[in-house]
Write a structure and sequence with these properties.
alpha/beta, Elongation Factor Tu (Ef-tu), domain 3, 2 domains, 7-stranded antiparallel β-sheet, 7-stranded mixed β-sheet, binds flavin-adenine dinucleotide, binds FE2/S2 (inorganic) cluster, Dihydroorotate_DH_ele_sf, 2 iron, 2 sulfur cluster binding, metal-binding
Length: 264
């Protein structure tokens, strides 16, 4: 049970572009910063339009409990994220969080290497995980992919967090390998064994990574994105179909799932 879930105020510290329609916001919210765990997310209320009553679910890429701040990198895709990008330092709002179940790091053996595979806005929770692995002294490699160089971030952050290898892919070849994260991830899995693969990105990418991990007999955790309404388990808008039958709610029972329990 998520005992820290609550409604918290926050203040914008920084809100700046980090790429093409890609924004980094740093918020001050001491209670959140001291309780949020990698793979969990927040549901942010963006002020400015009373007709928009739903919050925006966003993962986080870094947290600093000492200074009470949390960093989120998000893509500007619609009305809510456009208004979020317009928020200025010292502006305030509130959020619900920390939400959901994060990455299971204990599922990997203590000494083994793990592989992180991120695509597009899925880079945010993967960078959050990289920081946690660094704090735990775990060895890991990272594959990061984006459509094009201007939509790529997280490479420096992954290296700074101590990643062994960082492989970059872009669909158009403007940075790193031309192609998809799946090719780079399979190459690494072929070269060496990993205890676990952690992935977040577009659904077809995660489905393919899950298939590849299975082929190499490697555990795989996926962080799923679903449309969300309430964000706290009441409406079932975010249902995820399970192999065992029935559904689980992405907002409270996810967003991280074992790849083998999900119907792709
Ligand atoms: C658990 C979770 C974590 C997320 N973490 C991040 C993150 O770290 N960074 C980031 O950039 N985005 C993240 N998202 C996606 C983000 O919530 C949506 O992009 C955002 O809600 C869009 O709001 P909007 O009002 O700007 O766009 P809207 O006008 O509502 O929609 C614009 C477009 O985005 C699509 N969309 C809207 N909501 C979602 C959603 N929840 N999932 C997928 N597509 C959606 C719509 O179908 C539409 O095509 C996350 C989503 C979930 C569920
Ligand atoms: S968004 Fe309402 S139950 Fe998940």
């Amino acid at each position: 049970m998520n005992t820290h879930l609550g409604l918290y105020d926050f203040e914008v510290v920084k809100n700046e572009p980090v790429g093409d329609a890609l924004q980094r916001i740093v918020i001050a919210s001491p209670e959140l910063a001291s309780t949020i765990a990698p793979g969990q997310f927040v549901n942010i209320a963006v002020p400015g339009d009373a007709r928009h009553i739903t919050r925006i679910p966003l993962s986080y890429s870094a947290s600093d409990a000492k200074n009470g701040i949390v960093e989120i990198v998000y893509a500007i895709v619609g009305e809510g994220t456009r208004r979020l990008a317009a928020m200025k330092p010292q502006q305030t709002s509130d959020l619900v969080g920390p939400s959901g179940n994060g990455w299971q790091i204990s599922a990997a053996r203590d000494t083994g290497r793990v592989l992180l595979v991120a695509g597009g806005v899925g880079i945010t929770p993967i960078v959050g995980l990289a920081h946690e692995l660094q704090a735990r002294g775990r060895a890991f490699d990272v594959v990061i992919g984006a459509q094009t160089k201007a939509r790529l971030w997280g490479v420096t952050q992954s290296r700074d967090a101590g990643a062994g290898r960082v492989m970059i892919t872009t669909d158009d070849g403007s940075c790193g390998m031309r192609g998809f994260t799946t090719t780079a991830a399979e190459e690494l899995l072929k070269q060496q064994g990993y205890d676990c693969v952690y992935t977040c990105g577009p659904a077809p990418m995660m489905a393919a990574i899950a298939r590849i991990a299975k082929r190499y007999h490697t555990d795989c955790q996926v962080s799923l994105e679903r449309m969300m309404a309430c964000g706290f388990g009441a409406c079932h808008v975010c249902n995820v179909a399970m192999i065992a039958g029935g559904y689980k709610r992405c907002c409270t029972e996810g967003p991280v799932f074992d790849a083998e329990e999900v119907v792709w």
